Structures are given as structure tokens and as C-alpha cells.
Model the fold of this input.
Amino acid sequence: MRTRDEHKAAAIRRKAIEMIVEKGFDGLSMQKLARAAGVSPATIYIYYKDRDDLIVQLWIDEMQKMVDATLEGFDPGMSFEEGLKVQWMNRARFCLEDPVRMHFMEQIKYSPYNDVCLKRMDRRFVTVMGAFVHNAIRRKELIRLPLEVYWSLAFSPLYQLVKFHMSGRGVGGREKFELDEKTITQTLKLVIKALRP
Amino acid sequence: MPAVLVFKTNIARPEEVNQVAGLLHAWAAIKKWTIDLADVDCVLRIESDAIQPDEVIALIRKAGFWCEELPD
Done:
């Protein structure tokens, strides 16, 4: 009987994400990961049945952390303005405190793993975010829009700013860019203005 | 979570997996099993609370394949 060790498991997960971000999905094998994490392949197989299983489980784990971070201090009954502000701040903090895992989540999005992963999305997150939007529409704080249009307006500006921040450079890479709360607040104000009936 | 047993094998091709699949399926104490064909050790992974490694090794060897416990 082999024992599970949470410290070892966390080290394996972290190393795997770093390897994927550095070398892509093909750069990761159970053997290479074992060497990099300083454990035996047997240890990794205690947790995962193969590489694909490992990658999907990594996503589920990171997605769960993202959901928890995003919903912190958030209530779907909040006014649209207040709720979106909490969302923006939570999402920005989550992205900025660990760019490596953000990068990993983006890699998944553009990979064949995405379909499998999306089926494992936390339903609670989808439900809470849906309730928030419907409450806001009912209270006439938000216009009714196709979901993709709403999402693009409500969140893409934030994620683009985060991407500029992560690269350290603004549009075209010309000038230094650092995201601060003032910029977030300024952008958010315009987004709310655009979404108000 | 059931206990996990991991073995190094030379079961490297899907048709070889089929050869042992019947034996592993027939063993009621095995909850789940997989063989990772992408790995150099062709790792056989078994979830079971009621099986000893030696029993698995004997079974796989009887089917004509190499099998040994993957050391920690």
C-alpha cells in the first residue's frame, strides 16, 4: 500500500505546470516530470493514470482555485456595479499573483484538452455568474445581450490589461505598462457605462 | 480513495492490452485499471483495496508478459 503525501502531490502539480508553460504539452512526460520533481515515476502514478489524466486534473485543480478566488466576497445579489468591481479585483489579483498558472490555463484553452476540461467546469461558478447577470438585467442595471457580447464587454478589457501587465509592455510593445488600481477603476467605469440601459 | 498499485510491464501495444484486459476485468477486487502505453515503463496502474502486488505480478506473467512492481 502506497501512501499519499499532500506535499509531494503539490510539488508534482507545480512542477508539471511549470514544465508545460516552459516546454508545451509535448515537453511533459511522466518520466521527465518525475526527474524534475525529484520523485519516482511510481509516485506520480499513484495520483494520475497517464499524462492526459494529469493535465486534465491540473486544470480542474487550477480552475477550482480560480473559482474560489473569483467568488471571494462576491454575492450574485450585489448591484451590477459593485459586483463587477469585486469580480474585476478578484480576477486581476488572481492573474497577477501567479502568471505561470494563468499561462497554463490559456494553453489549455487553445488545446485539444479544452473540450474535456470544460465538461468538468464547476457548475456553482456558472450558476452564480448567471444569477448575477439575470438579477442585474431585472433591476435594469444591465442591458440584455448575447452572452459572448456581454462577456467580451464585461471582462475582456480587464484581461487585455492583465496581458499588457504580464508582458510589461503596452500596445505594440513600445512603452512600459504596469496595471494599477487607478487604471482598473477607470476602465471599469467605462465598461459599466457601456453596459447600462 | 482505494489503494493504488503500480507496475512496470512490457505491455506496449493495444492488442497486448486486450490480452490481459479479460483477466483484469474478471478480477472482482480490481476497481479500476489502466496501462499507460505512452510511457517507457508501460505502467500498469490498479486501484484495489484487496490485492497484493505479488498476485498481480503472477497473473500478468502467466499471460506471457513481464511485470514487476515500480519502486518508489
About this structure: The CA atoms of residues 33 and 46 of chain B lie 4 Å apart. Chain B touches chain A at residues 1, 3-6, 34, 36, 38-41, 43, 45, 70-72 (CB under 8 Å). The radius of gyration of chain B is 11 Å.
